[in-house]
Amino acid sequence: MTTEMFGAPYGIQQAEDQINKNVLSGLKAQQLIGEIEKQPAERLLAESHARLFQAQAGKAEAEAKETGEYKQFVAQALQGLSAPGQPPGQAQSLDKLYQIGILGAEKGFLKPSLDVLNDVTTIKQREAAVASSRAQTVVSQLKAQQEVSEQLAAETASITTPEQYSGWLAMQASRGRDTSWMPQTFDARAKQMLNTLTAQGISASKQIELKMQATKDASMIKENEAQTSAAFASAKLSGARLKIAEEDLTVKKKYAGPQAEATLEATKAREKASKAYSESQEVYRSTNERKQLTYEATQFSTLTPAERADPALRKDGKTYFTGPNGAGTWDAKVQRWIPFKSKKP
């Protein structure tokens, strides 16, 4: 049986070592679950470019021309997005592909832009899913450690007699824990060490609580970023489709006449594209708002019940997360909140 060490010399260090092992296990699980780590950035770029740029045999001349124009556009875009002297990592490569998809949609290259944006958003969503799975595993492991720390603090705090102390030592031995460094009699030194263990158990529990919250926050932010990226891409593509529909309607009105069947069909297409664009804009607005609120909630302290009830307890100039309306900075002079303007995109 493995001997478990705990106490002032060992407790926090062991907790840190175990947490590091848990994180390492989570990383290994991510490698087994996700496909992200299996694809280097260079391979991702090569496969995406091959799919987007290589013309298939037998395509019409107009499509081949469009493919050539798109290849030229991407080459110029990549040159403009590249940072000189810095090889791109996977995250940078994904960001570049995403920007190329957005710019391509604005230029009217709908089909290849849709392909690349679908690829990027799918990868981001997979990354978020893997991060969420890993976070759940880490939080579960941290929770188990927290329960042990809280149990230790509760046990040591409740010992007031020699009989309770002897029983506690025997219980630790039955759990495989080494108590040879503890006094075997309930003397002043034993009481002092029990007080130290109680304080250490409470401190370790608080540290673990902070790590659990940080893990949850990071996972939530990544998930919201993936959703926002997908919504923004959808809005851009919808806007590009609306632009094309409007241009088509203008041509039909000019050459076919206002009442021609082709013009009426183009009008319906334009109305459909306009509705889709409005809906996609609303989805993007709501997801971006949720992303912003999540970010602010993880960056600033939430008002305590006492601070919420009594403005005098709020710190002047401090930014708090105040709830559904986001964060605000308290101005004690005028007794009101100054809306917080985040710099994070």
What's this entry about, in short?
It is built from 9 helices and 4 strands. The protein has 345 residues and is mostly helical.
Question: What are the main properties of this structure?
Answer:
345 residues, mainly alpha, disordered N terminus
Compile the SSE list and pairings:
Layout: H1 11-33, H2 41-53, H3 61-81, H4 90-107, H5 110-157, H6 162-174, H7 188-255, H8 261-299, E1 301-302, H9 305-309, E2 319-321, E3 327-331, E4 336-339
Parallel strand pairs: 1-2
Antiparallel strand pairs: 2-3, 3-4
Describe the structure.
The structure is a single chain. With 345 residues, the protein is mainly alpha-helical. The protein folds into two domains: 11-55 and 62-237, no CATH class; 300-345, no CATH class. Helix content is 72%, strand content 4%. It is built from nine helices and four strands; from the N terminus they run ααααααααβαβββ. It has helices spanning 11-33, 41-53, 61-81, 90-107, 110-157, 162-174, 188-255, 261-299, 305-309, and strands at residues 301-302, 319-321, 327-331, 336-339. Strands 1-2-3-4 form a four-stranded mixed sheet, with helices on one face. Strand 3 (327-331) and strand 4 form a beta hairpin. The protein is elongated.
